[in-house]
Amino acid sequence: MQVPTQTKPAIIGALVGAVILAVVGFGWGGWKTQSAANQMTNQRIIAVLTPVCVNNFTQQANATEKLAEFMKISSWQRDDFISKGGWATVPGQDAPRSGVAKACADALSAAKTS
Question: TM segments (predicted)?
């Protein structure tokens, strides 16, 4: 099959334009893939819910004793302690959101050492 000679430059121009559009859009235009957008959303949700978790922890009646118990636990088990304590569980949910317990544990550790 023969392609007319006038069609070849149009096809090449369309392909080059598509590549330039993708490079400019994703590079400078701020376009995001779905996975990148999901990751950014999860990071922002964790950032919003972490202060709620810290507040839940510090507002309990025996916060001083729980904080002392928390600080005695090894750092890699602290997020489990926070999850099991229910402080990372947002009202209306049955379980803590992934990542909130770790961020909460990190925030509590940083606050205690400051």
Answer: 12-31
Contact 53, 106 (CB under 8 A): no
Per-residue model confidence as pLDDT tens digits over 8-50:
888 899 999 999 998 888 888 878 888 888 999 999 999 999 9
pLDDT of 114 above 70: no
Is a pLDDT exceeding 60 seen at residue 55?
A: yes
Give me the half-sphere count of Cα atoms (radius 13 Å) on the Cβ side of residue 42.
Answer: 11
State the sign of the Cα–Cα–Cα–Cα dihedral 26, 45, 114, 68: negative
Q: For residues 67-84, b (16+ Cβ closer than 10 Å) or e, as one string?
A: beebeeeeeeebbebbbe
C-alpha closest to that of 46 among 112, 91, 104:
104
* Single pTM value for the model: 0.69
- Which H or E run includes 78? helix 78-85
List the chain domain ranges.
Answer: 1-31, 34-113
Half-sphere exposure of 70 (CA within 13 A, CB side): 30
